[in-house]
């Protein structure tokens, strides 16, 4: 007789084949008579000798068998997460478990579930597409004196913007 290798088990004595551990369970050593549930939560079984952490953007709140659940669009979770997903930077919590992108001219630099916590771009910066996660600095030679403008404006003849992110043109 030979011992069943790690990742498999044989629950009975006598002639029979080794059985691979099911997803959500593992056997860490040779000659196992049963498999063990993956624990703690945040880990999923890969049918074998070890459990794997849920990848970034997925979570699993319970121990034992089962797969990690993917986060919906606009949200994420850290590796080995046991909690539901949280809103990405650039997204806010619009309704329970529903993240939306910050509107034009606004941003949210942090990951988290703050409701309606997008911040208006500061003067000298703009955000002209919803998919942008941050406000961009106005390029040199352009300015934006409003924090509600979607674009930066070229400086008039005889004026200049001394550096990127400038809010007004100078003589």
Automatic annotation (TrEMBL):
Q: Which InterPro entries match?
A: Growth_fac_rcpt_cys_sf (IPR009030), Tyr-kin_ephrin_A/B_rcpt-like (IPR011641)
- What single Pfam family name could you report for this chain, choosing any that match? Ephrin_rec_like
Domain of life, per UniProt, equals Eukaryota
Under the heading SUPFAM superfamilies, the entry gives: Growth factor receptor domain
Indicate the segments forming the Tyrosine-protein kinase ephrin type A/B receptor-like domain, all copies: 1-38, 113-142
Stored PANTHER family? INSULIN-LIKE GROWTH FACTOR BINDING PROTEIN,N-TERMINAL, SUSHI, VON WILLEBRAND FACTOR TYPE A, EGF AND PENTRAXIN DOMAIN-CONTAINING PROTEIN 1-LIKE
**In its UniProt entry, what is this protein called?**
Tyrosine-protein kinase ephrin type A/B receptor-like domain-containing protein
Q: What is the species listed in this Swiss-Prot or TrEMBL entry?
A: Guillardia theta (strain CCMP2712)
